[in-house]
């Protein structure tokens, strides 16, 4: 597949996903109903349904309109906290207090940081979509369980690190690089689904990355490797069967960027914890979480079965080298037409609650 063809598919899928998201949100807003989106015929009907699942999970995270089990428990949780949960502090100010050498391994610093920026009330491990916003409407965290369907979660080949995608100029690819390219070719659709989630949740970051990918595809030395790259990120790391101690990813991402983590396998006791935000979520297979791992400490523990994590993130220097810039921070209003966000959070069932 030509590089331009992979980017064309990326555009078709993200446009349909965003349109499906807006259609779903409009159903919660009287007088704002929009037409049902129509996807290009080149996208199979089954995959269109998967794109709609991505949009629906983000709708649920924004509006907390889902029907998890046990239903009574989540009704109580909804009535107590409501979603999106609203922090009483500003994420920009929080990030300014975290220097580059604070990687999450200093308990004293983290304790002082939590005194200044108190976490949410301690919640039980969650397995229903939700989001957290700060006092400036920045969406700090998005939790999307079951975003990937079970049949999408199977892998036939060993996972490899994407930094070995290509050999140096003038040299042949080695076995690891060929294997990485083979894995990418087998996961084009997974890349499209994760990219669609980013396009919905953080349009500004998606636009910067998409522009960078287009530029790379125009360069002869990168064109071949772009033929199967459908991830709207410029770095993808694949990790198997590893506990993840508490840390920040200070070498990746940055202010204004989301990281996207996808969990595959691991069993029902796998937990993703962000103690600085005061949340723990069930990290079941098919779950996606989006947040700034550069800013917020996080850890994964408790899995009892074979597990893989696909971590997608940005390298800001690469974005800038390709002519882009750091995106504005992700906010609720930036994902919707003007006035929709304010109307949405004014609905009683979608109200925000301070924590």
Question: Could you list some keywords that capture this structure?
Answer:
355 residues; alpha+beta; 8-stranded mixed β-sheet; 4-stranded antiparallel β-sheet
Distance between the termini: 49 Å
> Main beta sheet, described?
8 strands, mixed
What is the residue-mean pLDDT, rounded to a whole number? Answer: 83
Q: What is Rg?
A: 20 Å
> DSSP helix count?
11
Q: Could you say which overall geometry the principal axes of the C-alpha atoms support? A: globular
**Model regions low in confidence, pLDDT < 50 over at least 5 residues:** 67-78, 155-169
Total E-strand runs = 12
What percent of the residues sit in helical stretches (DSSP H or I)? 25-40%
How many structural units, i.e. domains?
Answer: 1
Class inferred from helices and paired strands = alpha+beta
Strand percentage, roughly? 15-25%
H-E order: HHHEHHEEHHHHEEEEEEEEHHE
Strand order of the largest sheet: 4-11-6-9-3-2-1-12
Notes on the structure:
- The protein has 355 residues and is α+β, with helices and mostly antiparallel strands.
- It has one domain.
- It is 37% helix and 15% strand.
- It is built from eleven helices and twelve strands.
- An eight-stranded mixed beta sheet has the order 4-11-6-9-3-2-1-12, covered by helices on one side. A four-stranded antiparallel beta sheet has the order 5-10-7-8, with no helix packed on it.
- A hairpin with a 5-residue loop joins β2 and β3.
- The longest helix has 24 residues.
- The radius of gyration is 20 Å and the shape is globular.
